[in-house]
Amino acid sequence: MDLSQILAQILAAAGVSAGQIPSDIDLSLGNILRSIFILIVVYFLARFVRGLVQRGLRQAKFDPRVEQLIVQVVYYGIISLGVIWILGGFGLSVVLLGVAVGFAFKDLIQNFAAGLIIMGTRPFSQGDWIVVGTSEGRVAEIGWRGTFLDTVDGRRVIVPNSNVITSVVTNNSLNPQLRSTIHLQVGLSSDLANVEKYILDALKNIAGISESPAPTVLLDSITGRAMNLVVLIWINDPVNQSRRVVSEALRAIKDTLSAHEIDLNPPTSVSMAISGQAK
How far apart are CA 180 and CA 272, in angstroms? Predict the structure, then answer.
């Protein structure tokens, strides 16, 4: 089986009929070597032009995100033109462009437009800690096709920009404090005033818990033989400290209540909310 037959099978799998494939495809060795040379030249040209555009945009003091988007469009645009030029030498440009448009054009345009919307509305910036759908992490890059997130466990997640603008986005970096809610259960026979005092005393010496607003202990409900308590704490620098602060708060509450012979009943849980001021 020669290269023409292999190519015909690939295009057929992509939905291109044999009648649409040019009959004068040139897959000679000379043409292949010529194409490789052109691709190398186009690659280095794209890198050179990308550097020129990047320096020009920085001198013009463009927004870094807009600069990044324009630079990427220029770079990949030159590469794409080079590929089309090469395919033209084989007599395949029209066919493969049709396949590319059919499979990728809609997705690329949607994500590119969504990237422009993100940069225009600025719901988050590079370095912000955000939640998009089921993905959570620090924004490493806002690209022309997707938003790159670095998760707390060291993974890189790429969320398509079209998904970002159609999903609920939570930005945990816009305000200096996050409120964490700790849910506890204690026995119904416990003295509520003393329990409140013990919990607040336990939280006083934990670094990272805000003094304004101060921690609060509320009686949420009574079920059976248990009192359901809600402990509200505000965390400073939540992006970097929330997990440590919540862990230390839970440990301090447990140790303090145990020292006063007050048992915690399950369940115990923690939730977080965003706010720039006390509620």
Answer: 4
- Per the CB < 8 A criterion, the answer to whether 190 and 201 are in contact is no
Give the pLDDT of residue 199.
94
In the Cβ-directed half-sphere of 87, how many Cα atoms lie within 13 Å? 18
Strands 177-187 and 226-236 come out as antiparallel
**What average pLDDT values come out for the chain (279 residues) when binned by 10 residues?**
52 51 60 81 90 87 74 80 70 54 62 80 87 90 86 90 90 85 89 93 90 91 88 85 87 91 70 48
CA 94 to centroid of chain Cα atoms: 36
Distance CA 262, CA 189 (A): 10
Q: Which pLDDT score is estimated for 276?
A: 45
Query: Residue 128 to residues 54, 125, 136, 169: CA-CA distances in angstroms?
Result: 24, 6, 11, 12
Q: pLDDT value at position 133? A: 86
The total number of residues written for the chain in this structure: 279
Neighbours of 69 (CB within 10 A): 20
Q: How far apart are the first and last CA of the chain?
A: 74
* 15 and 116 co-located in one domain: yes
In the chain, how many domains are there? 3
Whether the CB-CB separation of 169 and 124 falls below 8 Å is answered with yes
How many angstroms separate the Cα of 122 from the Cα of each of 58, 142, 231?
20, 11, 33
Based on the fold, state whether residues 159 and 187 are members of the same structural domain.
no
- Residue 98, domain extent: 3-121
Alpha helices by DSSP H, 122-273: 161-166, 192-203, 238-259
Q: Does residue 279 fall inside a structural domain?
A: no
From CA 18, how far away is CA 8, in angstroms rounded?
A: 7
Residue 148, beta-bridge partner list: 141, 158
| Dist CA 77 CA 75 (whole Å) | 5
pLDDT (0 to 100) of residue 71: 82
